[in-house]
Each structure stands twice: as structure tokens, then as C-alpha cells.
Design a protein that fits this description.
This protein is mainly α and 328 residues long. It contains 16 helices and no strands. It has a domain of 68 residues: Alpha Horseshoe (Serine Threonine Protein Phosphatase 5, Tetratricopeptide repeat), CATH 1.25.40. Helix 7 runs parallel beside helix 9 and helix 8 packs antiparallel against helix 9. The chain starts with a helix and ends with a helix.
Length: 328
């Protein structure tokens, strides 16, 4: 086989990989739990809670730029080790280094090393350092400091809780659950720890146990939007959509409650039921673009073109009116 033919085959191969990568870049979902991301489209918050604040999400950047960069990234990955700057799932070998009392420093070439704490640092000093690492996305270092904190003070509930969050970020669900359970044992009335435990159980498919912990958390913090939404997500996974709606609505009102329930029904392929909740949202807010957009698509998908056209025309009118107002 001559050189020209080899080059031609290589170019064709690159173009094929590139086209696949471009499609993937255009349809890629956000980081994090898919269900939680789905209800975030309506402005809801869900998930675990690190020190009463959300963990920073890694921004995807400009979508068009990602699409054009995708072929080059895909080609590069074919010939390089996996080191794309994202957190990698912890292996059993990794976990062993965190189980012992004397926790070794974790080296990661992707981050700038932080100053070491003094050898005689207290449990609370390691807790503060671990919290700082966690909130800045330095997960390995967070696990190291938080593990040291709980080894120095096994009753330090906050350290167990944040260690659970860190393990969850690594995808190590069993270790996360153990840490949350230790925290709950020390502080059984802490709503945020119960929320984190419940969400961790939910992410690992233990939906009934998740609902139990989240209901306990709701009793302790009946107006906490994050906890109510997490309970709604877990109830959806048990098929209890009416109960899920009640919690979504308690979290952010009937409009958002309908939108979130409809979105989850749609994710589970129950289009007819999703339409009912989207229609309820439209009755509350006739100009709601999210409800109109989804109704146009769902009516078309379920064989009701007339209703799909009505929703599409209403959406177009709403968009035109909005453009006219903003242009004044």
C-alpha cells in the first residue's frame, strides 16, 4: 500500500472521528446528576450541599467553539493518556491511601500545590483546609485533609459530612454514604447532612432509603428548596409523581412544580402525562416559553399536530412581543 493511500485512509479516519465528536459536543449534557440538571432548567436547585453552598460547576464554554474544537480533541485523545482536566473516578487503590490515620499527601499535576498544614495542626484546622479545597474543586486534597480531621476527632460531624461530599464528587458512593452516616450518627438533627445522605443514596439507586432520609430532612427544614427538590426527584424514581409535584411546588411554587414534574415524566418517556403538567403550567402562566416549547414538541410527537401548531404559534407570538418590548 503506497503512502498516498495511507494518508487518504488516515484523513478519512480523522474526519469520521471528528464528525462523531462534533455531534457529541453539540449534545453533551452538563456535569452532575442528569435529573438534577433537568429541573435546573426551570431555575430549581438540587443535589448535595457543601457548607450551605453549591459546589462550583465547571463551565463548558462557548458551544460553537467546543464543536469546532471537538475533532482535534478527539484525535488527540486517541494517542494520549486520559488526562482531560476533569476529576477521574477514584480507584480502590486511591481509596486505600485515605483510609489510614496517617494520610499521605496526594500529588496532582493539574493543580498548584497548597501550603502544608503544620504537623501539629488540629482537627478543625484540617477541616477548614478540607472545606477550602472542596469548594475550590481540589477534591483529592480535600479528602486528605478531611480524612485527617475525622481521624483526629471522630465526633467532628461537619468533617464527616464534607468528606462524604468529596467522596461523592469522586464517584465513590459507598465511602460517601459511610461518611454521611457517621455524621448523622453524631448530629442526627442536622438537615443538611440528612439531605446529603439522601441525595447520595438517590444517586446510587437506593430510592426508598433516599426518600426516608430526605423526608426526615424536610421535617427539620420544611422550607429548604434544595431538600424539597431532592425529595421530589427521589419520589419520581419511585413513580410517585403526584407526591413529587407537591414537594416541587413547596420548593418554588405551583408553576415550577408543574414544570419540574413534567420534565421528569418526559425523561421517563411518559409524554401524555408530561403534557398534562405542562398544560397546568400554561394555565398558570400562558406565556411561559418553556411549557409552550415542550408542548409544541410533545403534541407533535404524540400525533396531535393541531395542538402542536397552536403551541408553536403562541410561542412565536410571545417571543415577538418580548423582542418588541426589549427593543424599546
Amino acid at each position: 500500500m503506497n503512502t498516498r493511500r495511507l494518508v487518504a485512509i488516515l484523513i478519512a479516519f480523522i474526519l469520521t472521528i471528528g464528525a462523531t465528536a462534533m455531534w457529541s459536543a453539540a449534545t453533551d449534557e452538563r456535569d452532575g446528576d442528569a435529573d438534577a440538571n433537568a429541573i435546573e432548567d426551570s431555575g430549581s436547585v438540587a443535589g448535595d450541599d457543601a457548607e450551605n453552598g453549591e459546589m462550583p460547576r465547571k463551565k463548558k464554554g462557548n458551544k460553537v467553539a467546543r464543536i469546532f474544537a471537538a475533532p482535534f480533541k478527539a484525535f488527540g485523545k486517541l494517542f494520549s493518556r486520559k488526562d482531560d482536566g476533569k476529576f477521574q473516578r477514584m480507584t480502590e487503590k486511591d481509596s486505600e491511601s485515605f483510609k489510614s490515620v496517617a494520610v499521605a499527601r496526594v500529588d496532582d499535576s493539574r493543580i498548584v500545590p497548597s501550603p502544608k498544614l503544620a504537623a501539629a495542626a488540629s482537627a478543625r484546622e484540617h477541616l477548614a483546609a478540607g472545606r477550602s479545597h472542596l469548594l475550590s474543586g481540589r477534591i483529592n486534597e480535600a479528602i486528605s485533609d478531611l480524612s485527617t480531621a475525622v481521624s483526629l476527632d471522630p465526633k467532628l460531624s461537619e468533617a464527616h459530612n464534607l468528606l462524604g461530599v468529596a467522596y461523592d464528587k469522586k464517584g465513590f458512593g459507598d465511602h460517601a454514604r459511610s461518611s454521611y452516616e457517621r455524621a448523622v450518627k453524631t448530629e442526627p438533627e442536622d438537615a443538611q447532612t440528612l439531605n446529603n445522605l439522601g441525595f447520595s443514596l438517590y444517586q446510587n439507586g437506593n430510592y426508598r432509603a433516599a426518600v426516608d432520609r430526605l423526608k426526615r430532612a424536610v421535617k427539620l427544614a420544611p422550607t429548604d428548596e434544595r431538600i424539597l427538590n431532592n425529595l421530589g426527584l427521589a419520589l419520581c424514581r419511585l413513580g410517585k409523581f403526584d407526591d413529587a409535584y407537591k414537594n416541587f411546588a413547596r420548593a418554588a411554587g405551583p408553576l415550577t412544580g408543574n414544570l419540574n414534574t413534567a420534565r421528569m415524566l418526559e425523561r421517563f418517556g411518559r409524554d401524555d402525562d408530561a403534557i398534562k403538567f405542562y398544560e397546568s403550567a400554561r394555565r398558570i402562566d400562558p406565556a411561559n416559553s418553556q411549557a409552550l416549547r415542550r408542548l409544541a414538541d410533545l403534541y407533535k410527537r404524540t400525533g396531535n399536530p393541531a395542538q402542536s401548531e397552536i403551541a408553536s404559534n403562541t410561542l412565536a407570538a410571545v417571543s415577538s412581543a418580548s423582542t418588541a418590548i426589549s427593543g424599546r
